[in-house]
Each structure stands twice: as C-alpha cells, then as structure tokens.
Amino acid sequence: MTVKTKTAAELEKMRIAGRLASQVLEMIAPHVQVGVSTGELDSICHSYITGELEAIPAPLNYKGFPKSICTSVNDVVCHGIPTEKKILKSGDIINIDITVIKNGYHGDTSAMFCVGKTAPHAERLICITQECLYRGIDAVKPGATLGDIGYAIQSHAEKNYYSVVREYCGHGIGDIFHEAPQVLHYGRRGEGLALVPGMTFTIEPMINAGKRQVKLNRKDGWTVTTQDGRLSAQWEHTMAVTETGVEVFTARTDESF
Ligand code: MF3
Ligand code: CO
Ligand code: CO
Q: Is 70's C-beta closer than 6 angstroms to any atom of ligand 1?
C-alpha cells in the first residue's frame, strides 16, 4: 500500500469538499430533535447536498450502502442506516456521518448530537471522545508517526476508563473515499508510517463506554453495535499534513485548529 501525497490543486479541491461536508453538519444540527426519524435526517441531508451544495453524497450506493448519510444511535458504533422507523427520543445520543464528493474529491466528517435531555454519563462519553479526536489531530505534523496519533487517542480514552474500537479506523482520502493509509485509533509512540506534507486522511475514533468488542448486524450487513449494549461515540475530521502541522478541512465555524 503506497500513500500518495496530494498536489496543491488536489488539496484545494479537498479544502472545498471538506468545507461543504462541515456545512451539512451545521445545517442538520437544529433538525436533531425528539420525534424526528433518522430517515428524515437522511432525506434533509440528501436534498441539501444535491440541491444546495451541488455535490454527491458519497455513502449512497457505496458498496451497496442504501442511504446518503450514516446515523448511529446509542449502542450503534458506526454505519447505522437511516430509516423512517427509527424515531429519536429524549436521552438518545446520535452520530451523524457525512461524506460529500465535490469536483471528484471527498470530505468526510461526523459529529455527536444529544436528543432532548441526556444523561451526564452519555455527555461525558461524547466530550471525552471529541477530546480524543482533538488530541489525535494535535499529534499530526511532519515527522510524527501514525502510532503517535493512535497513542494520543488510546491513552486519553483508557485514562478515562473507556475502550477504543479496533475493527474500524481512519483512512486516507482524496479522489478515493477510503485509501491508504489506515489510521488506527490505538498504537505506540514512534511506530508506524512517518507523516509527510501533502498526506490527507481522516481521524475518526469510536470510543465505547464499556468493552471494545463490536458486532456486525448480519441481516442488514452494515450496522455495527457494541457487544455489551453500552453506549459508543464517534467524531471525525478530514485533514492534511502541512509543512508546519495540520490543516483540518472539515472544521466547523465553532472550531479552530
Ligand atoms: N463515512 C464513513 C467513514 O467515516 C464511511 C461510511 S461508508 C458507508 O469512513 F457506506 F457506510 F456509508
Ligand atoms: Co471516514
Ligand atoms: Co465518515
């Protein structure tokens, strides 16, 4: 697996795709309310991506995925399929994962939302998981390694008595949705590939309140849940390694890196 670095022209396309993906999350936030179905959230995002942004929702038909976004509620770790039948109730936590393609390049980002009144333990999981993402991003600079990113995430999660999902990881991204390298959310300092300017990838830690083991729903082929039924949270950004550190393409207006 070779990791190709992007040209300045490619990086500019990724900057645009990343900004659009972040805008979808900002647009959908006020719609995440008690009583809405995940199917409605999907159709709102689909219309916005194709209509307003004139972009393509990358998940739709990707390896057979049937919808335009992923919606992962409570014990769903990732790849939840939106449906009219799943109606959000007070206390739920949900990850919404958006990937858009614009001018042939991808922007991939996800965020957690609380529905109604959520338990303090659930909000704490969400908060620590976002800190895991931010610590991973902080580790990104030329000369650092993928192991440094994984270590930053794993050590913060485990210090807080949470566990890191191993079966899914961040990924290189560009004109291809998922490309080399794999960005593991666990690891040891100094190990793995050394980062160089022009590399583009996601960091997207999935952190479980209980044990790290997951199971795949064999009926739909997509939905991944925690084996123990406890909560899971995830946040994701798409970024590039720069000469001096990192540029986060999917930063929202309330975030600065
Ligand atoms: N957006 C997910 C990721 O972060 C991938 C979703 S693939 C799909 O890599 F097919 F489930 F949409
Ligand atoms: Co991703
Ligand atoms: Co994603």
A: yes
